């Protein structure tokens, strides 16, 4: 019983991170119809930026902010300089481009920051909280993870729903031509969208790294889980990404706890294939079945 | 004399199989000469170029001719390699090498059929994500079944003794004793040549035309009576079989099948080779494999000279691949070979144009040259 509860709690915490990462993928997919496979190394680079700030003797929170800001900038730069030329082109070119970026950022981080495991600090305890005499799997940092992701989602929701910029961003994602005719600077909105997505991605990176080890490859499997979560909820639906992330987190946590942690990736693959075969639009598909 | 020449030329244009076999024979001669003069270390390097080339050849057929992308070819190679390792677990295993390779191909082919059937319904980013998940998942299987598949350490591959007739033949042809690494390199290159002849032939026949038709326009292909699903699955199966052969050769060359050899990086590297050479061109795939094999050393040496540590310098090679991949997509989506071919065609058209009257040449040359470029870039 206790193991069941702990597995579920661990899964929910991890699921929150996957949800954030999936949300980052969905934000980019909605605006530019590109799945940004380079999201993982982008987040990894910003985590290393935070590590540099921490190593320089500054506080965790300054490092946290530095990582988020560098994520914002990195997203904007990548969209403007590299991705812009392939937008609207053959989709295979965009896929190859983001994979090329994946390799570049990976290698660059290994050259600049070194190719070894380094521990990353956590602002809160990473030991289980005590509830009624027993230790449960929810850590102080886990609570922070859940809250941070929830706050970020709330802010994004507010941005898209209640602000002028959010409306313009939605318009340029929905129909670039019409939006442009109505005076929306679509290019800028796309850059902003990538920047925001990259920020959310780097938040996910920080949350996974906290109290654990970082390495140039530490986010590689997360991009797969984030993608599976996004597809599970429907690549077009931000709510779906969050629900998909939580579901996936719990499911993978159970596989890891009861079968074996080596098979987590295989379980993710099986879930992905099931979703794509049975319900290609994801759980939250709004439109009628769309070709995948 | 003139008629013989003309007859030769028509044969060259008409017989696809004959042409491929002739090129393969020439390739075989070149390979034997090169391997004979190379050192043991170079032979192993050339062997690894061969297995990368085989896998890249399979991938280029899938991506270039059929328009499907796969990031899972590293995983498919792993399946070929593990099959080989299980069959060659000790010296008394007794299974002849050709049978082992065929078994590796067959197993990978089966897995490829399953993956391909699922992949046939997907396109673009969905396919990329699903095959990426495959690449991440497969090494985990080897870790989970520790007893059978050796876990983190992997499985050792024991190369059977070289058959005496091969030793005799090698001595007869070259006058030297055949070393084990040279034997491995010869095997790998022989497999490469056989695979490439099969792939080249297949892509020039009805099957290949179907693949291209599906890639270029699904609706038109369907109207012409092509079953989309069947064409996609067959392309994936053929490509997976090549990856299986590559995995078998890798296992024999490295003499180990371990999860660390089949990371995402391997799959991405294969894609680099294919993009670099130009999607759909087997020669380009071989060029890409050559760059993957020989570039790291050059770049690492340059890095060390520039004052980087060894570990940092070792990361420069992937950095170069990645940068080249990005630049190729942005500047020359047809790849190195594709771009060169387009430039050559354009020049030939221009030269043909200057021979005739100028007014017609501009009319005919312009649309033809654009159609060749678009053929090179649509993937």
UniProtKB/TrEMBL annotation, chain A:
| Localization per Swiss-Prot or TrEMBL | Cell membrane
Membrane topology, as annotated, equals: Multi-pass membrane protein
> What Pfam families does the database record attribute to this sequence?
BPD_transp_2
This protein's record includes keyword Aminoacyl-tRNA synthetase: no
User: Transmembrane residues, as ranges?
Assistant: 6-27, 34-54, 60-82, 94-114, 134-160, 190-211, 265-285
Keywords per UniProt: Amino-acid transport, Cell membrane, Membrane, Transmembrane, Transmembrane helix, Transport
Q: Which family does it belong to?
A: Belongs to the binding-protein-dependent transport system permease family. LivHM subfamily.
Q: By what name is this protein known?
A: Branched-chain amino acid ABC transporter permease
Query: What is the organism of origin for this protein?
Result: Nocardioides oceani
Automatic annotation (TrEMBL), chain B:
Keyword Cell cycle carried by entry:
no
Membrane spanning stretches: 12-34, 46-65, 71-88, 100-120, 126-145, 181-202, 233-252, 282-299, 319-340
Q: Which UniProt keywords apply?
A: Cell membrane, Membrane, Transmembrane, Transmembrane helix
Specify whether Cell inner membrane is a keyword of the entry. no
Which InterPro entries does the protein's record reference?
Answer: ABC_transp_permease, LivM-like
Subcellular location as annotated:
Cell membrane
Region annotated Disordered, chain positions: 351-379
Which protein are we looking at? Branched-chain amino acid ABC transporter permease
Organism expressing this protein natively: Nocardioides oceani
Q: Topology in the membrane?
A: Multi-pass membrane protein
Pfam families recorded: BPD_transp_2
